[in-house]
User: Which sequence fits this backbone?
């Protein structure tokens, strides 16, 4: 993992002031290009000193690219704000334009959420949380640049372990738990909840270091909570799936425990709403074949963090770490 970091451009709380092409019709719509540009910028495209290699992912609100830093000769990851339901890319310029005036308002809301993600990332400095390098504006939208973690996601790591060994050995599992709980303790000490912990959002470097990525769903508990919270079935606890549910560090701990459950068993935890009605989940510590492979305290800790009732889980990552560190 690279440790060099460029200065981060200050992010203003003021609304985005970049202009877009305003070729509006009488109904306020923007005529669609007959041959609009693809959603992703093309390979080898140069933007703000970075050469885009290829797209590595896209969602409803953005595109993520693997890129080369032409000045510092290193690979980076660039996330572009591109809510495709609200805008399109113009073929002639690669700029974006809103579909209509309603889209423009929604776009600015989405951009505010994107910039909030940038600010959250920029405030963090932990060896197991992805680092942000810089932020810039281009093509009437915004981008941020992070370190490139050279390694697979935890879901792929789990698959390789099951393929070759049948299970993940205790030592790498314990190491993963200690590193990620330390990262979560750091994150929560800054009043931030990740809210999207799952196997795809933990990458593992070639030398075995786990890195937590994707702060797109994160919230700052010190600010007004958004009206909509991201939910991932099998990983989000009941309070995250309930409108107005109280969120706390234990919310992330449930998701991390669900990630560990998948890593150990190869199975996802049932959706938490279902567990509130009828909990069919068998505790790891009740499985004889797992007790033969892992220390009972390690299994019991995961079981505790997976409780549907928040008050029965660990209140914070430090409590869980303390349990793990106790002598047999």
Assistant:
């Amino acid at each position: 993992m690279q440790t060099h970091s460029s200065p981060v451009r200050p992010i203003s709380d003021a609304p985005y002031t970049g202009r877009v092409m305003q070729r509006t019709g009488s109904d306020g719509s923007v005529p669609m290009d007959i041959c609009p540009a693809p959603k992703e910028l093309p390979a080898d495209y140069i933007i703000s000193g970075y050469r885009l290699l290829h797209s590595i992912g896209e969602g409803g609100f953005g595109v993520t690219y693997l890129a080369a830093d032409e000045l510092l000769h290193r690979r980076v990851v660039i996330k572009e704000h591109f809510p495709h339901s609200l805008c399109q890319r113009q073929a002639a310029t690669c700029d974006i334009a809103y579909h209509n005036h309603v889209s423009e308002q929604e776009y600015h809301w989405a951009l505010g959420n994107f910039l909030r993600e940038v600010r959250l990332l920029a405030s963090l400095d932990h060896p197991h949380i992805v680092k942000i390098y810089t932020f810039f504006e281009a093509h009437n939208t915004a981008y941020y640049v992070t370190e490139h973690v050279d390694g697979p996601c935890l879901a792929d790591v789990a698959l390789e372990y099951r393929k070759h060994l049948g299970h993940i050995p205790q030592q790498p599992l314990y190491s993963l738990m200690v590193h990620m709980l330390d990262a979560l303790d750091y994150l929560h000490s800054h009043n931030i909840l990740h809210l999207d912990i799952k196997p795809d959002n933990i990458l593992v470097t070639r030398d075995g270091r786990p890195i937590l990525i994707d702060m797109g769903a994160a919230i700052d508990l010190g600010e007004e909570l958004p009206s909509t919270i991201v939910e991932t079935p099998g990983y989000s606890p009941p309070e995250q799936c309930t409108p107005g549910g109280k969120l706390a560090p234990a919310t992330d701990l449930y998701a991390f425990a669900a990630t560990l459950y998948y890593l150990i068993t190869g199975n996802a935890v049932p959706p938490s709403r279902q567990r509130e009605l009828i909990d069919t989940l068998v505790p790891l510590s009740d499985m004889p074949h797992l007790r033969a492979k892992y220390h009972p305290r390690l299994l019991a800790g995961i079981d505790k963090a997976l409780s549907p009732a928040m008050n029965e889980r660990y209140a914070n990552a430090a409590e869980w770490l303390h349990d793990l560190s106790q002598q047999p």
User: Anything to note?
Assistant: Residues 101-122 form the longest helix (22 residues). The radius of gyration is 22 Å. Helices lie at 101-122, 154-164, 170-189, 249-265, 272-277, 288-291, 296-305, 317-325. Residues 194 and 218 are 4 Å apart (CA to CA).
